[in-house]
From TrEMBL:
Single GO MF descriptor: sphingolipid delta-4 desaturase activity
Listed GO CC annotations: membrane
Pfam family, one: FA_desaturase
Domain of life: Eukaryota
InterPro entries xref list: FA_desaturase_dom
GO biological process: ceramide biosynthetic process
Protein name, per record: Fatty acid desaturase domain-containing protein
Organism name: Thalassiosira oceanica (Marine diatom)
Ranges for domain Fatty acid desaturase: 6-174
Length: 218
């Protein structure tokens, strides 16, 4: 709330789906510096706190894109919405929404989904689902294997995907607690920002062509 992110997120998220783990293209992958620096339990706690900064700034350094008209529209709508809140209720109320967004993406139970989705906790498994009660508050974002398999299905119906194909999804490693995911990530010395599957499949000319046209979508 209060931060213009929807249009930019859409552009990068489509690339995350098509090129999951692809070096430079998938900005969901932490940088080499993150993996090098956040190498202890205390530093991983700090990394969790700073998740909003990394998710916001990493794309600008790893895979920068020219802003499109939709991003400017997104900014204009957000500024108008924020201005209305300040006019009607005050600046403090706007800060409540903005800080709520930032805290909710940091060291917070709901933010456990950022780690749970793709950090390799079980060797051989790259994507994980979460089947706990917080799905009720997060539009079923925990159904992440289902989301990657059928990304055009709305979050409302992802539990139905699991139900009709439970023989596949129930056998995969999955979680029931995002709090435990965060705890295990911090306490397990074998897990760090490096614990992601990273691949290089695009040829140089393919990468340059995609960058020249501004990504998968404009």
């Amino acid at each position: 709330m209060g931060i213009p992110a929807a249009s930019s997120f859409k552009r990068y998220h489509l690339e995350h789906h098509k090129f999951q783990g692809e070096d430079i293209i998938d900005v969901d992958i932490p940088t080499e510096w993150e993996g090098w620096f956040f190498d202890s339990r205390a530093k991983k706690v700090l990394w969790c706190f700073l998740q909003p900064a990394f998710y916001s700034l990493r794309p600008l350094f790893v895979n920068p894109k020219q802003p499109t008209k939709w991003e400017f529209i997104n900014i204009a709508c957000t500024v108008a919405f924020d201005s209305a809140i300040v006019y009607v209720w005050g600046f403090r109320e706007l800060m409540y929404l903005v800080m709520g967004t930032l805290f909710g993406m940091g060291l917070h139970p709901v933010a456990g989904h950022f780690i749970a989705e793709h950090y390799v906790m079980n060797r051989g498994q790259e994507t994980y689902s979460y089947y706990g009660p917080l799905n009720w508050l997060t539009f079923n974002v925990g159904y992440h294997n289902e989301h990657h398999d059928f990304c055009n299905i709305s979050g409302k119906h992802l539990p139905d995907v699991r139900r009709v194909a439970n023989e596949h999804y129930d056998e995969m490693p999955h979680y029931h607690s995002w709090i435990k995911v965060i705890y295990d990530y911090i306490m397990d010395e074998g897990v760090s920002p490096y614990s992601r599957v990273k691949r290089v499949t695009l040829k140089e000319e393919e990468f340059e062509a995609m960058r020249a046209r501004g990504g998968l979508i404009k």
